[in-house]
Write a structure and sequence with these properties.
SMI1/KNR4-like; seven-stranded antiparallel β-sheet; single chain
């Protein structure tokens, strides 16, 4: 983890490393930069940067969580990886993007904090709340 990422996670409560590295959820391939992070920490919950707070779901829970939110019907092509309250954090491999989704909306015009990398996604979320 580089210095920018270390600063983002100073007070974050990480989970233990996963027993098995899961690389896809319901047929959706998870991105390498996210998997690199998850292979060391397997998600967790807490402050992210100076202004944000949230959780990344454990890899072994992702399929059940995506099924519970009915992600493939509500947001086809996306895999939910975390979030907080009514905000979900998701990845779309065909578009190569991370984004935030208001879980009360299904239209892509309501997606925000659209980023091409995991690190950029975290930085943008923090900056948007400053």
């Amino acid at each position: 983890m580089n210095d920018i990422m270390k600063d983002m996670f100073v007070e974050f409560d990480f989970n233990e490393k996963p027993e098995e590295l899961i690389s896809d959820v319901n047929g959706i391939k998870l991105p390498d930069d996210y998997l690199d992070f998850m292979s060391e920490h397997n998600g967790g919950e807490g402050p992210l940067g100076e202004n944000n707070y949230g959780r990344f779901f454990k890899l072994e829970e992702l399929e059940a969580i995506n099924d519970e939110y009915d992600v493939q019907r509500s947001w086809p092509g996306y895999a939910v990886i975390g979030g907080i309250d009514d905000t979900l954090w998701a990845y779309n491999p065909s578009k190569g993007i991370y984004c935030q989704i208001d879980s009360c909306n299904t239209g892509e015009d309501t997606y925000y904090t659209i980023s091409d990398s995991f690190e950029e996604f975290l930085i943008k979320m923090d900056e948007e709340l400053a």
